[in-house]
From TrEMBL:
It is found in: Membrane. Keywords: Membrane, Transmembrane, Transmembrane helix. The chain crosses the membrane at residues 56-77, 83-105, 153-171, 177-201, 208-232, 252-270, 282-306, 326-349. It is a multi-pass membrane protein. Signal peptide: none annotated. GO terms for cellular component: vacuolar membrane. It comes from Pararge aegeria aegeria. Residues 53-382 form the Amino acid transporter transmembrane domain. GO terms for molecular function: L-amino acid transmembrane transporter activity. Pfam families: Aa_trans. The gene is jg11556. It comes from the Eukaryota. Its main location: membrane. This is Jg11556 protein.
Length: 408
């Protein structure tokens, strides 16, 4: 166990950061060796960031983390809830998500005071909560941290697979509409995405990803504007739609909304790399500002999308747009570009675990070569997983069409 990993026995039991507004530690730990005259450890003062992120940049990152392809499924979510339950449920889900994220960040900041560490990631926070918690749970700290670490890596690798499929399928649908004679398979489009994805994932600092997130946010506004244009054409009365759907469909609504809003893996990296982390929580704060915008957009998009298309609304509302109009197809391509620009931000989460492992090396030799090799290898693994899924899906479709054909 290294010196910085040893449990700290000498710290202020009140653990208050009086110099930072919006940060009041409520954690109280019993200790026999407390020096009452010792100044409380301030993790914010000990963060040495080579490329700190601005407050505005942090808001942009959070918006991009929460505003993705999931918002296109909000009209479908409203179909499973009805208009009234949809509006109430979206608001409640947003409040719960915001509250839980705030709890995680506040707990992480308090644990940084106790452990005397400048910052902690999501897995480190979960492990430290056990390590510095009740005595009978303290031995579980390392295990919990490891489980959360690998669970987050697996989760975000899966997210990257979904992003790759979305990018490839969007380009395929648009190009097939313009040039039906080409008929290129989805696997080929996935392979064509390899080089661009490898290039964007070589960016290592969140600060340098801000322009990509900002561009993606601008483009997604354009996509929303185009989609809303088609939504408001001959918009029917909300009275023609179901106000309250069957209770048995509500779980589908909840799962869709939570999937769309959830971005917990990106939250801690964003907070840890802020130039002014005390501005993350509080009112207005980075978190509250971003989530108010997210909740409002989700509610508006889901409400009007469902009112326009009703029960005919599809999993992604872009599929309801006219397939013979270039504006609609262009919006689909722009959404694919939005997901591409967001890819590196999601990729940052599994790489955080890899970087912590690399930090244990005694030498920094060949650092750039190792980073490029690992990042390229991870993207190749994602591409391989995607192609395997596409092959299985194709075989499943062929089997459905002709049950006599073998699956393999």
């Amino acid at each position: 166990m290294t010196e910085k990993e040893k449990p700290v026995d000498n710290f202020n039991s009140t653990a208050e950061l009086t110099t930072n507004t919006g940060f009041d530690s409520t954690l109280s730990i019993d200790s026999k060796d407390i020096d009452k005259d010792e100044k409380a450890y301030n993790p914010f003062e000990h963060r040495q960031l080579e490329h700190p992120n601005s407050t505005l940049g942090s808001i942009v990152h959070l918006l991009k983390a929460c505003l993705g392809s999931g918002i296109l499924a909000m009209p479908s979510a409203f179909k499973n809830s009805g208009i009234v339950i949809g509006m109430i449920g979206t608001l409640l889900a947003g409040v719960i998500c915001t509250h839980t994220v705030a709890l995680v960040v506040r707990t992480s900041q308090e644990l940084c005071v106790i452990a005397k560490k400048p910052s902690m990631g999501f897995a480190e926070t979960c492990g430290a909560a056990f390590t510095y918690g009740p005595k009978r749970l303290q031995s579980w700290g390392a295990f919990v941290k490891t489980v959360i670490d690998y669970s987050m890596v697996a989760t975000y690798i899966s997210v990257l697979c979904v992003y790759t499929v979305f990018i490839a399928s969007s380009f395929k649908e648009a190009i097939d509409g313009w040039y039906p004679a080409l008929n290129i398979s989805i696997q080929v489009y996935c392979v064509l995405c390899l080089v661009p994805l490898v290039l964007i994932c070589q960016i290592r600092n969140l600060k340098y990803l801000v322009p990509f997130s900002a561009t993606a946010n601008i483009l997604i506004v354009v996509v929303f504007a185009v989609t809303m244009y088609y939504i408001f054409i001959d918009l029917p009365s909300p009275k023609e739609r179901e106000m309250v759907a069957s209770v048995t469909q509500w779980p589908l609504f909840v799962s869709t909304v939570i999937f769309a809003m959830e971005g917990i893996g990106v939250v801690m990296p964003v907070e840890n790399e802020m130039a002014h982390p005390e501005k993350f929580l509080g009112c207005p704060g980075v978190l509250n500002t971003a989530m108010v915008i997210v909740i409002s957009l989700y509610g508006v998009f889901g409400f009007f999308g469902y009112v326009q298309f009703g029960d005919a609304v599809k999993g992604s509302i872009t599929l309801n747009l006219p397939q013979d109009q270039w504006v609609a197809q262009g919006a689909k391509l722009l959404m694919a570009l939005v997901i591409y620009l967001s890819f590196a931000l999601q990729f940052y989460v599994p790489m955080e675990k890899v970087n912590r492992l690399l930090a244990k090396r005694k030498s920094d030799r060949f650092e750039n070569v190792i980073q490029v090799g690992i990042r390229t290898s991870l993207i190749i693994i994602v591409e391989h997983c995607v192609n395997l899924m596409n092959v299985v899906e194709d075989k499943g479709q062929n089997s459905t069409a002709d049950s006599s054909k073998p699956l393999i």
